């Protein structure tokens, strides 16, 4: 069907699908950049200590060089396994998903970044069931929110990641809490609006500032029939809480909802979904 024959409603739907695809490709490109940077750091460590070992013939120096090379190679193995995990999650269908595994794989890709900015990561994972999710989309949300948290703590701080099972609603709550600068109360109702950003532009790593990250996160959580809410106090930090339904083995298959443009209808404590 040509563009001339589309109704206004069909054109809007087509644009929504194209926007969702563009956002997925942008997230993939950012992930590729992060992974490449991490591998480059590992390779530089291996090269530098290999040169050190070749220059010095004494056993203590060579032992130190080989130990550092081994540690770098083991980190490269972790990064590779994390990327392979992402590749396994590329299917666009709902499946039983272990959130703790997704969080750990995401942290591997951000580990050096967190260390560089002196962000201590604390994990409090209760035993929770698998959620009904599309793995790569939830990982996209995780990477976005954890990067935002790191950017909110330029002088360092703590990132708290929590998992809890809510039996009453048969869902799992994922909390991402930072001790950063916080978000002014008057800006909270707008943070899920597309193209609204509390940042002046990308940081020195090239991330953030476009105003589409949180809007995309809300789109994804809405499509998962979940909820996302935010609590923030200036000077004390921000917490995003995501609630996702537990995977039901015998549940009827539900078609994947199309990702649309969020309305941003929020006030006070902001709730999405």
From TrEMBL:
Its EC number is 2.7.13.3. The keyword Transferase applies. GO terms for molecular function: phosphorelay sensor kinase activity. It catalyses: ATP + protein L-histidine = ADP + protein N-phospho-L-histidine. The keyword Phosphoprotein applies. Keywords: Phosphoprotein, Transferase. Signal peptide: none annotated. Residues 34-248 form the Histidine kinase domain. It comes from the Bacteria. Pfam families: HATPase_c, HisKA. SUPFAM superfamilies: ATPase domain of HSP90 chaperone/DNA topoisomerase II/histidine kinase (SSF55874), Homodimeric domain of signal transducing histidine kinase (SSF47384). InterPro entries: HATPase_C_sf, HATPase_dom, His_kinase_dom, HisK_dim/P_dom, HisK_dim/P_sf, Sig_transdc_His_kin-like_C. It is an enzyme of class 2 (transferase). This is histidine kinase. It comes from Bythopirellula polymerisocia. The gene is virA.
